[in-house]
Amino acid sequence: MSFFPAKTVNSDIFGRLLLSEGLFINREAMRPSYMPQILPHRERQINELASILVPALRGETPSNIFIYGKTGTGKTIVTKFVGGELLKKGEEMGKYVTFVYINCEVVDTQYRLLQNIANHFINEWSERIPFTGWPTDEVFSKLLTMIDKNKGVNVIILDEVDKLKGDEALYNLSRINSSLEYAKLSIVGISNDLKFTEFLDPRVKSSLGEENLIFPPYDAEELQDILNQRALIALKPGCLDDDVVPLCAALAAQEHGDARRALDLLRMAAEICERQGVSCVSKKFVRLAQNKIETDRVTEVIRTLPAQSKLILLAIVLQHQHDSQKGTSGPITTGEVYEIYKDLCKKARADSLTQRRVADLISELDMLGIITARVISKGRYGRTREIQLSTSSDEIMFVLKEDEVYDDLSNYKINAQARLM
Q1: pLDDT, tens digit, for every residue of 130-165?
Q2: Sheet holding 332-333, edge to edge
Q3: Number of CB atoms found within 10 A of residue 123's CB
Q4: Residue 405 DSSP label
Q5: Are 298 and 311 in a shared domain?
Q6: Taking the model in full, what pTM does it have?
Q7: Total domain count for the chain?
């Protein structure tokens, strides 16, 4: 038996949506991964990187390079752009040059890194190194064999290189040229962490840190140029109000000059506008996009928190909701959070941490932007933190309750006399 009349069922919902006029000509051009023919305001970095890598076209080994800069400053796209030009020039000149890109946030162990690089040089599926199962020294030996077999100069890009676990992979790669007979290898490391090399083994640091390249953040005017360039490719003419691009650029400039942030804001604003059937993007849609992106970011951060941090966050939310119901909403203290946290640990059958460690985890939640925790002095009674939520308690609770453990714990009731479920 159907609960809805047959006439309300639309069997071609996508057909109707496809008939509506969109705002995009090329949606992919608004993605950070899109490679335009010109990269605005990165000419100096392109030329510097090219001058370091040009020995590869002469059959010589380029210096190893470390590229630093905050997220969204063009490190990856510039490196891929220069790499693409290097390959094209190599083909023109008849020089064998390879360019291998590895994202170390995904490929984060020595075995996986060596396996991925080696498989790039292996054409036969039957010879490819499996995802797991081989001894690491055998994988390294296979890598040496395949690189030497292909000869030429090989440039390996290690993006997010600071995410690699241990120094062994970098140590082996930095010394690999002494074991190669016919081929040469150069490493380009990309990192958001300016202090990354300080924690490396001194032997690795001396081998890898031959050249450094710093990418400064974009300012608001530079971000406007980038957005205007992409908007011309991605969007239909006349669908942006004049103040939309400057607003997106200004908001992203506040976030350390992040071009990805600026592109995401403009793309999301256009998508929201398109879904609402409006033909022109205004500032209102930029604000809507900003709220949606921020909510999505916080949601993902909460979802990936460790179990103890989730328990502490749940304690903060429960205290906040309790105070709101009593009409006494205001800053929450570390002591209040710790008492609820200990009870939650008992209910969840988890070991509770010390109050000092809980205070450290509260500071981490503050750094992630989920809460704000301000240290205040109580005079002779010492110091404490005043904690407030930076995100809606309902949104936080919604994400936490995705896990049935925290769903059960969300029923916890705070009692002034005794805390009972």
Answers
A1: 988 899 999 999 999 999 998 899 999 999 998 888
A2: 332-333, 383-389, 371-377
A3: 10
A4: H
A5: no
A6: 0.74
A7: 3
